[in-house]
Amino acid sequence: MAARNLSVADVILQKMESPVFLYNDNTPISFTDDLPEAVDVTIIGGGVIGICIAWFLRERGYSVLVCDKGRVAGEQSSRNWGWVRAMGRDPDEVPIAMEAIGLWEQLSEQLGPGIGFKRGGIAAFARNEKELAELEEWLPVAKQYGLNTAMLGSEAANDMISAPQGRWAGVMHTPSDGRAEPFTAVKTLATALQARGGLIREACAVRTIEQQAGNICGVNTEHGYVKCSSAVVAGGVWSAMFLRNLGITIPQLAVRGTVARTAEAPEILSGAAGLGDVYLRRRQDGGYTIACEMVEHFIGASSFRHLTKYIPAMFTGSDIRARPGKDPTQPWFFSGKWSGEDETAFERHRVLNPNPSAKALKTMRKNLDKRVPELNGVAFTESWGGMIDAMPDIVPVMDKVESTPGLFIATGFSAHGFGIGPGAGKVMADMIAGDQPRYDLSRFRFGRFSDGSKMRPGPAL
User: Fold this and answer.
1) E-state strands within 142-278
2) pLDDT means over runs of 10, the chain (461 residues)
3) pTM of the complete model
4) Which terminus has fewer CB within 10 Å in the chain: N or C?
């Protein structure tokens, strides 16, 4: 018997009652719409980007089908830090991120507490004058877009996080930035999308995209064929593998991030903050989400294939560790091309649920206790790993594929996807509808990896 669709209230109740927030292969299926004969747009991937694209397409009256091989928001879209920020982003992302913050706020007002959005501000604390100067280098970007970012001195910094005077040299603070709850936000939005007539099918891998006279004409899923004139690849870390079967290469790699949550704890800040070597966000349940910048890439064939494009990013300050290990999203784990009749790696790996890094957890605990003594002894009640879809310049691809009319790519958000999700969804909906872009999207074009452009890394992951 098919599992019933969860209402928004069910989602919130599930969150409050369950001590474990992660999706896995055993998580009950919530979205079981029958496959239609035809839709205007099929979206491959039910993460925050895919669901947001579908939301804004439905707003325009398009018929949409979202297919996910596993669960809606089952991977990185529910495993991220939950920051919703414009501060510190790549300059070309900032206006889209600013719009996304406003959209998160609207969605929260419209859909209720399942979104978990709050404008609590985001702060980047400096431990010394050198770090303070590095933060100040971003201020011209804030000024360019009219963002309310400000540099505050030592006294204000220490007051902001209830720290003794002298602990912090200063802070960069953006009051309009906010936070949301990854575990419930995307699923809440998906439930509302379904109520608007959007179709969603979990445990339904799209195997191939079909073309007729060079144009997109439909998709083959593991459960049948669906006609469509447009398809969007928004598969997160799986996008590169899927696209390679179409003869399209993007230099995307998967990196593992580690995150933890604490038990309920005193409120020392209402938003989110970077403390140099540890990051924390106030949660809706009264605890904190804790993370560090250390991420890990499992070495495989793609590591060497795309090495030269990633060299510039090695000097951006990202703490990316290369290590041996198996990454099922690397194409060499699935030999050769496949057809719509073949079982694929997408069906054999429904939900990526990697173990967290023990080293990262140890680092997070040590640095949290050092930077925020007020949280000493507050337990980590759960920890998890998530696979991030990284690009060599640390900004996403949001573009159409000129050689294949009707095919669009929205992937490689490099750990920024959750916060920018609604903004990116609206950008892609505009693009699919053929509207004039409201932003300069040249930074995010698909062709930048093959037209000789020099890689210009954005801010670190």
Assistant:
1) 150-152, 170-174, 178-179, 199-201, 206-212, 215-221, 224-227, 230-233, 253-262, 272-274
2) 42 42 86 98 98 98 98 97 97 98 98 95 97 96 98 95 89 98 96 98 98 96 98 97 94 94 94 96 96 84 70 60 74 74 95 94 96 93 95 96 97 96 98 97 96 86 55
3) 0.93
4) N
